[in-house]
Each structure stands twice: as structure tokens, then as C-alpha cells.
Amino acid sequence: MGADHYIISLRHAGKACRQAETVKKIIVSPMDPGAYKMVYSLGKNHMQELKPKDNFPFSERVSDVFHLPLPGAGIGIR
User: Fold this and answer.
1) Dmax over Cα atoms in the chain, in whole Å?
2) CA 63/CA 66 separation, integer angstroms
3) Taking the complete model, does pTM exceed 0.85, yes or no?
4) Nearest residue to 63 via CA among 42, 47, 43, 77
5) Of 71, 76, 77, nearest to 41 (Cα)?
């Protein structure tokens, strides 16, 4: 998405994509660049079953529209 943004994609045939299509909710969160190792390490979850939110580094904040938990390293998101 240009020089200042990077998107981690959902593979069309991947489990995470199927889960997003089933739930019909997804949040795109800008992340602190310093959290890149943590973000990359979470990639292994894209091919696994859904897990409880306690398994992830979420903040206490939730999204305005879906009321889903937001990442702790998220920046400028509501």
C-alpha cells in the first residue's frame, strides 16, 4: 500500500480466509513498526483453528463497529 504501509495478506485458500468469510468480520489494524517480530510470529495462527483471545496480545480496547478486541501494539485505531 505504498512506501509507508505493508499488508499481510490472507491467502484465498487458507484457513484464516475461510474463518473471516464465515464470521464476516475483520479488522485491519495499523501496527507499531517496533512490533514487527511479534506480528510476524503470529502468522503461524493463520493455518490453525480459532483460539480464545487470551492467547493473543490484545489491549483492553475494542473496535467501534464490531466490538472486537484490538491489538496492544495497534496505533491510531478505534
Assistant:
1) 34
2) 6
3) no
4) 77
5) 71
What's residue 2's pLDDT?
63
- C-alpha–C-alpha distance, residues 26 and 7, integer Å: 14
Give the amino acid at 24: K
pLDDT tens-place string over residues 4-31: 666 666 778 888 888 889 989 888 888 8
Q: Average pLDDT for residues 39-48, to the nearest whole number?
A: 86
CA end-to-end span of the chain:
20
Contacts of 12 (CB under 8 A, 6+ apart): none
- CA-based nearest residue to 26, from 68, 57, 61: 68
